[in-house]
TrEMBL record:
UniProt keyword terms in alphabetical order: c-di-GMP, Kinase, Phosphoprotein, Transferase
GO biological process assignments: cellular response to nitric oxide; phosphorelay signal transduction system
Reaction(s) catalysed by this chain's protein: 3',3'-c-di-GMP + H2O = 5'-phosphoguanylyl(3'->5')guanosine + H(+)
Transferase found in the keyword field: yes
Stated name of the protein: cyclic-guanylate-specific phosphodiesterase
Organism: Marinobacter antarcticus
Record EC number: 3.1.4.52
Amino acid sequence: MAPEQTNRLFSQEATARILVVDDEPRLVTALASLLRSSGYDVTEAQGGKHACKLIDTLRFDLALLDLRMPEVDGFAVMAHLANQQPECGSIVISGESSFTAVSRALRRGALDYVRKPFDPEELLSTIEGVVGKQSLLKAHEDIQVRLEKSEALHRYIVNSSPDIVFMLDADGRFCFVNSKIESLLGYKPAELCARHFRHILDDRDVAKGIYALNAPDISADNPRTLEIRLKTRGSRRATRHFEITAFPIDPQTWTHNSNTRGGGSGQNARYYGTARDVTERKEAEAFISFQAYHDLLTRLPNRALFKDRLELAITHARRGSQKLAVMFLDLDRFKIINDTLGHAMGDRLLQAVTHRLDGCLRKGDTLSRFGGDEFTLLLPSIHSHEDASQIASKLIKTLKAPFLLGEHEVFVGVSIGIAIYPEAGDSMDQLIQNADIAMYHVKAKGKDSYRFFSESMSIDSTNRLNLERDLRLALEKGELRVFYQPQVCAQTNRILGLEALVRWQHPERGLLYPRDFLDLAEETKLISQLSEQVLDQACRDVGQWIRSGHQDLRLAVNLSPVEVEHPRFVETLMERVNATQFPPGNLEIEITENVIMNDLEQISQKLRELADLGVRIAIDDFGTGYSSLNYLHRLPIHTLKVDQSFVQAIRSGADDTCIVNAIVAMAHGLKLEIVAEGVETGKQLEYLRNLGCQQVQGFFYGPAQPASDISKLLTQATVRTAVSS
């Protein structure tokens, strides 16, 4: 372009007349101020109605408008603008971000779409680009009008066009193509002349391109327009998207045969056309579509796409009398890792989990991220429950290996609920809901496994919903009670400690025991709130007894895995202990072996911190888990609690007592205290005394009792037995 033309274009940009339309006066004023500071001539319109009146009386180069406006919205303003001033472009600035609104605005002629709140620099850059393009188009039109009869200028326009301009002969071979094809596709014009146009068509679009050119209804008044993929030159054969418009040429009126700056002379041309590169637009449309139906973190289908595919799979299964499976997957321990290492590491873990899960699937299966750490899996066309079982087992197995996140090695498991069509439901919502219910039953039974949905689960779920509602109210109304079971010296019958046990005084069902509601409390994440209330009450009760003269009285409390695995477990526990002025040296926390082995490194550190503060550590239900000498030797363990199932097995025969014998002998060797749970008879007590078991607890000395009864017991030198030998 000549220097004087360039200067004229810059001048046009600087004095471009812009109409700013919005129903928010402050936004209109701010926008106008921003544009005027950049040299634009700005007119302000308060709403769509005002804008339409200005369009009728003033001329504009560009309009910036909102979509959502009362009375007359942005789409109506665009329509009025297209009718009155078709040469004026428009840019939408709106908080409306749905794909439908964006697509509709672009179809109505919007040159760009900027989402509120906008970045001023980005907006100015967008306006500058659009105004520049408008100025180029106007300059282009002016040149055409003034120099229409100049053949030299026609050549210049064709070869300077932003589009590929081409001519084809009757057989579809190139007889002219401008030089733009080299910058867009890499072909030199000369090498394409005399070659068939299918040479540059993507293989998937060859039939489409040939059919379009040979359509019988193509004419000068009805040109053929289509979007098609063209190959770039080179070994990679990448493709780009083009919008092609082709017109037939009447051979009676086309006699041109001179050389051009492009390739070929145009002689024997029967078709004239342009090819506009729309790759960026197609990629933007594809990305918007991908965003609407995929999770951007894992690149998996999202909930909406999963439901679409499930609906389609159900239709096929119904027609073919086939089965299909829906799995609901929930990661175990993800929240703890996310809270401990941060959300960035949590995102990396989700991506790594997705990669492993994806490797277990068959062709045609759909894995989706349902939300958070929940996934759903569609298995179409299965033959039996065994097919789903095999896939579920593979999924569980693939997640057992540790994940390396930076310098951290972490472990996650997965709980899987499975619903089979049609027995577990014949609709999309039923299958998803029932798979979810089955997954929660896995969580309640220990996690890291799978279960199929059954009708009994649905009944249980209804009851659990009612119980969950009541439990939430119980926590608010203070319906929980703390009972205490004495831990008694096996030799002297003197009370050494008290284990705090929770009870629920239900207003309708009476006194409920932990087995009736603790699993539900863990499942619904109410366990922490419940434990806090129990710990606070126990510290107040036992603290009062300690201060009244029982200085050595020990308080034993059970802690759930959710509490122990929390990153702030130690801080939270000590804050509550200190708040009640309870002496840490009189506190003994009871945890299970499984909690320790789930994350030995992290739990070990927490237990050492507590031991340093004087808190005692007891292993509850010892003998039912890992029973590892390794962790017993490494950790600050003070007490082993022998599970009551082993105590109850004490009979006259040696086979029934070998486990208890081994546990007691091991505890003595490691210099640990022993508490035997579930002692119910004098024979059991006598046997444990002879083994050297220091402490016992159980119904032999009575059930757990409220604080008022324990106060009376503590006044006695020894505790009496509640049952005969």
